[in-house]
Amino acid sequence: MDEKYEYVTILFEKMQGDIKQVLEGHQVLHNEITRTREELREEIQLNTIRIDAVNESLGKRIDASNESLSNRIDAVDEKLSNRIDSVEESLSKRIDAVDEKLSNRIDAVDEKLSNRIDAVEENLGNRIDSVEENLGSHIDAVAVDLKAHRADTEAHHGIYRVKENGLCFSFSPFFSLTNV
Length: 180
Description:
86% of the residues lie in helices and 8% in strands. It has one domain. It has one helix at residues 2-155; strands at 160-164, 167-171, 176-179.
């Protein structure tokens, strides 16, 4: 049994040595993992600081660009608004001037046409009055001639004859047409 005991003792001692080596390996690994964690934690903190710095820097640049662009847009908007207002005012003045000019021309043409119409109306009125007067005197003259002719016809009662183109017109109380 001694041999077995020695054998088991050697085996235990060897196992103890192996376990001790495993424990030492675990301790080394644990220390290495802890050291790596610490290094990583420091790297993460450093990267976080860097990211925050870059983020802050970019934020400031973005804010500055945004403000600059807003200012430029506002300037362009104001400039365009002023130009539009200027063009609108200019066009409004031109339209008013054209309206006034056309109104004056229309008024002048209206007055001229009214004067011409009045002159034509007066001229036609005078001509109509003249024609009426002239016709009135002609009608009166014809009436006088007709009265004289009737008196002459009545004085030559029944014997008055007019001969024209082979036809004989007899003016008597019994009117007749005969072929001569």
